Amino acid sequence: MAHQTLARRHAEFAANLRTSDIPPEVRKGALLHLVDSLGVSIAGAAEGEESGAVARALAKKWATPEGATVYGVGSRMRPEMAALVNGSMAQALEMDDKHGSSLARPGSTVVPAVMAVAEDRNASIADALTAIVAGYETMIRLGFVARDRFLERGYHTSCLIGGFGAVAGVGRLGNHSADEIVSALGIAGTMASGIQESTRTGSTSKIIHGGWGAHSGIVAMDLASAGITGPESVYEGKMGFFQTHLTPIKGELEWDTAGAGLGSVWHLLDTAFKPYPCCQLMHAFIEAAKQILVDMARDRMDVAAIEAIHCKLAEPGLTLVTEPRERKLAPELRHEARFSLPFVVASALLYGDIGLESFSDDRLSSPTIRALAARITTAEDPESDYPAHCPARMEVKVAGRTYTKHVPFHPGSPEAALSPADVLDKFARNTQWLFGNRAHDTAEALLEIPETESVALIVTLLGEAAATSMQRA
């Protein structure tokens, strides 16, 4: 048998995947990831968020009478534009799901693309879930090829590979042939982009990374359907995706891992739900801070007496959340603060937790947070197993005592997984601004809609919950 390119293997998997091929627990997991993605999109579209203002401005500019819904805003757009906005909102507050070692974030790329096309075509929930599974499994496997090497170069891995996952999902939803999906994957390679400089400097262009992947996937599939052809060697080719983005390539690329287990191993189940609205690199540090606060309370130690804090984490994440130091100590924008280890650790120690309220304007300008953040030093952790996990090592010195914590698994990882109830609670917190006291009931209702129903029923349910909340207000 002739050697198959990775694009061909991914395309044939997506084209041939059927609802009956997917185990019940995987379909159930896909639905939970769908609900989570809807919730984080709605959170990003909140009127009080920087990203919410962007969503409303674009809704006025790009509105159409038909198409797909922009969650949290209610306007409709062409599917590819709705996917761009919904995916951007899903990534805006850093709460979209993420697969560990592949660095894929399919909840802000695959889900918005599939849902926009599914709504526009009046597809069933069953077909949408099958497409979501195809997209997750493709995107995650593609992330295995290089793992964290894109990040080392300054690229945002999830944005780079998001379009490929979206192609697989949209290709499955539209019953496209493997040949068409191969071409669309090749076209997506031309669109692949995403740099991390905005994360380092505090600008907000990174929030569009999820949306761009979703948008690119839809457009690439449309172009392939219209007759544009893409290179089947998009991944392995001399001028293909990996060679152009990673040359000179360090170490061996994991081609076999990226194509293994399609249809039998389901990596969607290993994809982490994020509990906190900030960069996942810092989630274990939030847990470490909580544990240290318990120990300090036992010893009757006051947070105000903290003298020094030392945090250790792996590169390239260390640089991402600690440099440039002057900006990380005093972030000016909410988005900037979500990537500041000093700000997040200081906030967690002072307030006991991190939530949406942690990034309010008052918190950003708090002299108390800034003073404690200034006592934080950092170093590289040579023992970290990143990117498989995002562990934390933290040391806090208080009045002559030293408190040390090692949190090996970030919250949401398979070893520290969020339960379905946790995910529903997260949805309720994220959507309370829109649904009020109906937020939790809405989450439960979404999980109970029969798969035979149309995706339009999901949109209707969201709209009715918002309308009822507004009437009560």
TrEMBL record:
Belongs to the PrpD family. Residues 11-247 form the MmgE/PrpD N-terminal domain. The lineage of its organism: Bacteria, Pseudomonadati, Pseudomonadota, Alphaproteobacteria, Hyphomicrobiales. Signal peptide: none annotated. Residues 276-440 form the MmgE/PrpD C-terminal domain. This is MmgE/Prp family protein. It comes from Nitratireductor aestuarii. GO terms for molecular function: lyase activity. InterPro entries: MmgE/PrpD_sf, MmgE/PrpD_sf_1, MmgE/PrpD_sf_2, MmgE_PrpD, MmgE_PrpD_C, MmgE_PrpD_N. It holds the Pfam family MmgE_PrpD_C.
